[in-house]
């Protein structure tokens, strides 16, 4: 619960920090690189983390890294590049190059960051001394604090200014449900096909479909939705979809699959599925004139 919240806050903060006029690198690159770096570090130290306190490893990898990185946001960002959502004066070939750049660069950067994180962890592992596991009182206290931290997102949403809702507080409400859904899908389905992580594939595909649907609802031309609905949809997009889908686990699974054939099949199938889903949900309505390229609803 708490690490899902921290992951969302880190993603929104890094995105805001790296979004500025004249930026050279798209904002999500920083998010994916940071999450994969930490994921690689944790993977290399899985044994001492698990020996000390197994929930700590799950919290850092599934909770923080999985919520920090986002597969659905990456897929939508790539799809917007194909469509030239910002209406930049450029040719269709440039649109293709922009989409390819975000696709290839994200995968390369994510895998590179993952391997670098593992390298750093392996370098310091001889100096990593495992402490005795926490006692029952500390474990129960941590559980209670975790529940209280997530429960606190409700008064935070209600009491902080309305301008914060679409920026962060609405996303915090839906952060843990998204992470929990991904965790349940992974533990239930990943073991079905040893050469294809079906649970992560399902989470990334389902989250991409939801994000496309929420973006469509925010971009209607006939009957724009209210400010409250627009804010909740933004919270679902950043919180639930952002935590349901993950690049860090996706990159880790690509790196750990045994053969090159399995790696390429999993990576390409997941990527193509995400883009196909967005074409069916977002593209069809856009080309039919029912929605615009960017959102039409307002948060005010």
Euclidean distance between termini CA atoms: 30 Å
**Oligomeric state:** single chain
How much helicity do the residues have?
over 70%
Percent range for β-strand residues: under 5%
How big is the Rg? Answer: 20 Å
Helix/strand class = mainly alpha
Q: What is the 3D form?
A: globular
- Which series of helices and strands comes N to C? HHHHHHHHHHHHHH
**Biggest sheet statistics:** none
Uncertain regions: pLDDT < 50 for 5+ in a row? none
Give the tally of β-strands. Answer: 0
Would you write up a description of this structure?
The chain has 300 residues and is mainly alpha-helical. The radius of gyration is 20 Å and the shape is globular. The protein has one domain. The chain has helices at residues 2-17, 28-44, 46-52, 54-68, 71-83, 92-124, 136-151, 153-159, 163-173, 175-189, 198-217, 227-244, 248-256, 260-287. The chain contains 14 helices and no strands. Helix 1 runs antiparallel to helix 9, helix 4 crosses helix 12 (227-244) and helix 11 (198-217) packs antiparallel against helix 12 (227-244).
Nutshell version of this structure?
The chain crosses the membrane at residues 25-45, 57-76, 104-130, 142-160, 266-288. The chain is an all-alpha fold.
